[in-house]
Amino acid sequence: LLHDANPLIRRTAAIALGKSRAQRAGDPLLVLLQDTDKDMQVAAIEALGYLRDPRAVAPLLNVLRNSDPNLRKQAISALGLLRERQAVEPLLAMLTDTAPGIQSSAVTALGWLHDRRATAPILALLSDPKVVTKDFWLPALNVLRNLCDPRAVDQLCTALSAPDMTSMMLGLVHHTLMQYPQTPKIKSAMR
After folding, report:
1. What does each C-alpha distance from 21 to 26, 47, 52, 129 come to in angstroms?
2. The predicted structure's pLDDT at residue 110
């Protein structure tokens, strides 16, 4: 089915192969990364993420340099699903990619890797008014909540008193801080 004339059947077969998590599925999916059909490449990348074959890490890291933002975005998600530590630094570098959806995808993937090296760059982006959107805040706060890195406390507490925060964003920040050890600073900021 991976060689069917119908591209939809080929893409569906690739995704199914990845979801099967069969180790023999890795080789044909890695070959599909070179397919001339961009949609097929996206399907192969998605499937490699589901497969969680560590052999896919290096080829997926190469995709991060592709000029197509859809391919980069899918590779970011797949690398997060693979949960391989060698992807942390390249994913951190993707936080500077300004193509739509790349930064929030990178934050989400970094969250799956549970690595505190993500804290400082995420906090820096949360301070940047050009970056701060609802689409970025939600994955960023999820990561900060899961990491419970004390370096985030000051900025999160300050966010609770920011005049431009919506009630939804305030609720998300509050929920994030609830996961941290309840220090006097956090208790005071959440009053």
Report:
1. 9, 9, 7, 41
2. 96
Residues 52 and 131: their CA atoms lie apart, in Å, by 31
Q: Which two tokens stand for residue 83?
A: 């949960």
Q: Quick check: 173 and 156 in contact, CB under 8 A? A: yes
Give CA–CA dist 145/98, Å, rounded. 24
Q: Are 71 and 79 in contact (CB under 8 A)?
A: no
Task: Report pLDDT digits (tens) over 80-109.
Answer: 999 999 999 999 999 999 898 999 999 999
b vs e for 163-182, b when ≥16 Cβ sit within 10 Å of the residue's Cβ? eebeeebeebbbebbeebee
pTM for this one? 0.89
